[in-house]
Amino acid sequence: MNDSQKPDQPHRGLGARRKQRIDDLAATSGTTTTVAEAGAIDESGGVGLVASAWRRLRRNPIFLIGLVITCAFILLALLSPWIAPHDPADNPLIDKVSRQSNPVPGPEPGFPLGGDDSGRDLLSRLLVGSQQTLLVGVCATIFGLAGGLALGTLAGAFGGWVDSVVMRIVDVMLSIPSLLLAVSISALAARPSQWTVIIAVAVVQVPIFARLLRGSMLAQRGKDHVLAARALGVKRSAIILRHMLPNSLGPVIVQATLVLATAIIDAAALSFLGLGNPDDSKPEWGQMLGQAQMYIYDHPHLAFYPAACIIVVALGFTLMGESLREALDPKSRR
Hints:
This protein has 334 residues and is mostly helical. It has 12 helices and no strands. The chain has helices at 8-28, 35-38, 49-57, 61-83, 122-158, 160-175, 178-187, 194-221, 224-231, 236-272, 285-291, 301-328. It is flat, with a radius of gyration of 31 Å.
């Protein structure tokens, strides 16, 4: 051993004694972690965005309440033809209807909510009406989403004069109040029907999706994977459809849950104004609400039940959509 190595031996012995002393103190305190283990790096796998969002959502009571309301509404809508106690078009209580003394039959055995002014079971009409309301809301949202995807993709992917033209059209549509625009579109139909309501509500939702998707597409244009694909000579259509569009759909899908609540309210408003399906053999909550306005003072329950259903369902979709947006947006995570 040469002289240059001798001074290091006391220092090495001192370091070993300190490490052993720390390990002894850790052992006496009831822990089993050594100094070497404390400095180790946890190599467990990472958590994806969806899994991380679900961990927060399942502990969020607001999301769970909205999810329960939404699932109950969808389940009732799907099973309503089988669980409704009576045919919503039949009038088994017609003999109880008296225009002078009793225009609206009250509750009785077999008819827990009573009937309407035509002797039809109110509970059955509410249950079957949930199916029509769900159909109108979902179809309007899907059509509005499809139109918004088309306009938003054109504006965000190409830019330039295409972006300017599309966004000026979107700005004009957004400058008109949504309900007024929906009423104007419905009034253009020669004969009101359920499809006129769907088309009117869908057109109102198109600029919302278009503007949101356009912003997401513009953010994707400067990403590294898009720039790399352009440098490799990948076609523009492939870059848009395979790289930019799939990564831009997250906020749009979350927005669709919020728009669904708005679509249900707008559809109910159009039916209330008499611009929906005139055939009351297929009940819809907005239609029922409009028919009950002539009895609002003497029999307010005819308006209360469909109005409460609309409010609760819209609240469920809103709570679920807001929770999804907070869970998926890094800037608003709690």
